[in-house]
Amino acid sequence: MPELPEVETVVRELNRKLKNKTIKSVEVLLPKIVSLGPGTVSPKRQVSSSKVSKFIRLLKGQKIRLVARRAKLLIFDFYRGTRAPNLTRSSGTLSQVGEGVGERQVNQNTELTTLRQMGVKIDGSLAMLVHLKMTGQFIYLKKTQLNKKIRILNKANASLLLMPCKYTHVIFSFTDGSKLFFNDLRQFGYLKLVADSELDCVKELKDFGYEPLDKSFTLEKYLEIVKTRPNGKIKQVLMDPKLVAGIGNIYSDEILFHAGVRPGRKVSSLKHQVLGMIFNEIKRVLRKGIETKGSSVGDFIRTDGSWGRMGKYHYVYGRAGQECKKCGTIVKSEKFNGRTGSFCPSCQV
Ligand SMILES: [Zn+2]
User: Fold this and answer.
1) What are the chain's domains?
2) Measuring CA to CA, which of 82, 148, 175, 189 is 20 to 30 A from 232?
């Protein structure tokens, strides 16, 4: 499942590739992938053909002002007309973690204001929220690349496929002849259209905790929130999106390895100094993930079909049974609250 660095990679790439492009047409091949309005999208959703037609009609002619991110949600902000609305200095930087984003003061309870500050304008137009869930992916091809074959699964023996393929559920065609394909093998992902004015009512946007790479996420704040879960196991607490957004199985394993802490340790058993090390590793490891364009050890691929390089830097995730890169001890894996965590029994205590 894509985590913060993978989603951030997609957002940065799409932002660069799609900005100011005009949607010429949209094809929805699997209706349940799309949705309208701020309500929660259920996995068993059914979408009528009239809703699908409305989804398509609303998007036709829209221009993409920017693509941003909040936790693991992608936010496409649209406009109509010939010129993009005036952009503020910080516009578009929601995705540029650590580059100016931290300059703002963020109140955890007013994230939507933050979204506005970051350039998702409430201008009476549309926004599209996208969750990739387990296996959602975007592939973008220029007009001249449309015959390029993509290996959409991260297995060396997976076949190269022309887009659209059998896992493509939505296709956006732009006026310059380029196309954006939304593929999803497991079909848990969604594309949801909301009016900008409805953003305030989107539950998924309200429920997230801190953006871990935001400057407003400080050690003091971190200590405050972990202490609300004294009996929680540290891995589980790290992965709780209501506390800190965007950390899943891969990055929690890697963060805890570098901090030298076993995944099953109870929060109350960890000293301040150790929690401080975990806090530093949250920021460092996630930044490394973004710098290396995400981890393709799972099913993640970039918008051109290439793989992220973070997997090369994994010390424990996906390495159970192999030697620890630091000390040579065999990496172990265990279940923690239903999720498998990998760790080195020597380096982590
Ligand atoms: Zn070790």
Assistant:
1) 4-206 (3.20.190.10), 219-343 (1.10.8.50)
2) 189
Alpha-carbon distance of 253 to 48, in angstroms, equals 41
Residue 329 CA, ligand 1 centroid: distance in Å: 5
Q: How far is CA 149 from CA 31, 161, 163, 172, 328, in A?
A: 25, 5, 7, 18, 40
Rounded-to-integer distance, Cα 221 and Cα 209, Å: 11
By the CB criterion, residues less than 5 angstroms from ion ligand 1 are: 324, 326-327, 329, 344, 346-347
Q: 341 CA to middle of ligand 1, Å?
A: 15
Residue 251 CA, ligand 1 centroid: distance in Å? 17
* Cα-to-centroid distance, 258 and ligand 1 (Å): 10
Dist. CA 344 → ligand 1 center (Å): 5
Assess contact for 197 and 254: CB atoms under 8 A: no
Amino acid at 276: G
pLDDT digits (tens, 9 = 90+) for 289-348: 999 999 998 789 999 999 999 999 999 999 999 999 999 999 999 998 888 999 999 999
Q: Determine the 3-state secondary structure of 16 from DSSP.
A: helix
CA angle 161, 17, 247 (to 5 degrees): 80
Please give the distance, rounded to the nearest whole angstrom, from the Cα atom of residue 23 to the centre of ligand 1. 51
SS3 of residue 116 by DSSP: helix
User: What pLDDT does 207 receive?
Assistant: 84
Q: What is the pTM of this model?
A: 0.89
Q: In this structure, which long-range contacts are made by residues 269-278, counting pairs with CB atoms below 8 Å and at least 24 apart in sequence?
A: 270/234, 272/223, 275/222, 275/223, 275/226, 276/219, 278/234, 278/238
Distance CA 268, CA 174 (A): 53
Distance 278 CA to ligand 1 centre (A): 17
pLDDT digits (tens, 9 = 90+) for 166-185: 999 999 999 999 999 999 99
Which residue is listed with tokens 């971190």? 222
Summarize pLDDT for 21-53 with one digit per residue, the tens.
Answer: 999 999 999 999 999 988 888 777 888 899 999
Between the CA of 155 and the centroid of ligand 1 the distance, in Å, is 28
* Interval between CA 220 and ligand 1 midpoint (Å): 29
